């Protein structure tokens, strides 16, 4: 019920954005009941509030009204409700769009940079990293709720399946990238075998998750946490055992990427409790952007080392040709 001096236009946000089906029942003072539906399995174009954030309007008048919210979903969904003034929600949505645009632009530059390195140096690590960057962009866009609003506004079932499988695919690519970048095969064939198996498992879980297998979503989350700590242990072992300090920057940044996603997963799984978990929708993408930019710098440093090694190899080959030519002239 409205009090004097308060605004009447409000909205209630439901976190997370990938909840399948939400029914909002509103009963006014006369007892009349109205129903609003939203969620991944409802068309985005039918929402009362067309925002990437899943929210429904609340109009506070002079008479008391009662709202009931019924939620049906699967997967990782620590439900949380957040009350906004409508003006505040609109400003937050504008900020999200601006951030996603900047994020997409930065990822696009990094993808182009790695494709140029690939053409220049012919090293397979660069297209893998470019694909990893693109997959992270898609994952972040889905996490922010844009699978329904931008990608599939008229196809709710496709949007729901896309969101369900969106975490397994980037994790599969990330496992391949870590295996190639840190040269697992040279240092530990067993560790390399584990990373290859993890990549295949993530890919299979992405397909199963998109098909609606709820257990695959949870299994992928636990496997991601396991692989994250395994990578951390492997890079520490590289530093201590093999003195591979040329991987130090990449190891630190890749560990930050893993730990930020691990913390997010622990919140989604319910092991870490937060009063306002919806703030992670902003901070996790921000951390990912900073970490990916630093990781891109580490990849560029690897490119520089590869270029110098290539030049040294060409110089040795040229010197060998000169020696052979001189020896041949002396014989003649």
Question: Could you characterize what this model shows?
Answer:
- With 332 residues, the chain is mostly helical.
- It has 10 helices and 6 strands.
- It has helices at 86-121, 125-143, 146-151, 156-165, 168-181, 184-187, 189-210, 214-242, 248-269, 280-331; strands spanning 9-15, 21-27, 33-38, 55-59, 66-72, 80-85.
- A 3-stranded antiparallel sheet has the order 4-1-6.
- A hairpin with a 5-residue loop joins strand 2 and strand 3.
- Helix 5 (168-181) runs parallel beside helix 8.
- The model is unreliable at 1-5 (pLDDT under 50).
Layout of helices and strands, plus pairs?
Layout: E1 9-15, E2 21-27, E3 33-38, E4 55-59, E5 66-72, E6 80-85, H1 86-121, H2 125-143, H3 146-151, H4 156-165, H5 168-181, H6 184-187, H7 189-210, H8 214-242, H9 248-269, H10 280-331
Helix pairs in contact: 1-2, 1-10, 2-5, 2-10, 4-7, 5-7, 5-8, 7-8, 8-9, 9-10
């Amino acid at each position: 019920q409205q009090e004097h001096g308060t605004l009447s236009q409000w909205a209630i946000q439901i976190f997370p954005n990938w909840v399948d089906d939400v029914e909002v029942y509103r009963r006014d003072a006369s007892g009349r009941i109205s129903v609003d539906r939203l969620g991944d399995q409802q068309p985005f174009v039918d929402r009362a509030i067309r925002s990437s954030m899943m929210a429904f309007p609340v109009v506070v008048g002079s008479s008391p009204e009662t709202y009931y919210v019924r939620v049906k979903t699967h997967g990782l969904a620590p439900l949380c409700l957040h009350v906004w003034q409508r003006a505040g929600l609109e400003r937050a949505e504008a900020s999200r769009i601006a951030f996603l645009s900047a994020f997409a632009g930065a990822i696009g530059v990094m993808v182009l940079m790695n494709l140029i390195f690939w053409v220049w140096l012919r090293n397979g690590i660069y297209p893998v990293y470019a694909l990893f960057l693109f997959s992270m962009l898609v994952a972040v866009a889905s996490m922010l709720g844009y699978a329904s609003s931008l990608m599939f506004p008229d196809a709710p079932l496709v949007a729901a399946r896309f969101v369900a499988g969106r975490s397994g695919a980037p994790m599969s690519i990330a496992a391949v990238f870590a295996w190639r970048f840190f040269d697992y095969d040279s240092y530990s064939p067993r560790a390399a075998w584990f990373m290859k198996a993890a990549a295949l498992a993530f890919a299979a879980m992405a397909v199963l998750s998109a098909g609606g297998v709820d257990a695959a979503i949870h299994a992928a989350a636990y496997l991601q946490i396991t692989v994250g700590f395994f990578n951390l242990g492997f890079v520490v072992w590289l530093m201590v055992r093999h003195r591979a300090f040329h991987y130090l920057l990449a190891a630190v940044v890749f560990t930050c990427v893993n730990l930020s996603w691990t913390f997010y997963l622990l919140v989604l799984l319910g092991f870490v409790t937060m009063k306002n978990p919806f703030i992670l929708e902003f901070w996790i993408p921000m951390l990912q952007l900073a970490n990916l930019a630093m990781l891109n710098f580490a990849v560029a440093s690897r490119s520089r080392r590869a270029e110098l090694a290539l030049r040294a190899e060409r110089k040795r080959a040229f010197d060998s040709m000169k020696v052979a030519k001189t020896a041949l002239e002396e014989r003649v």
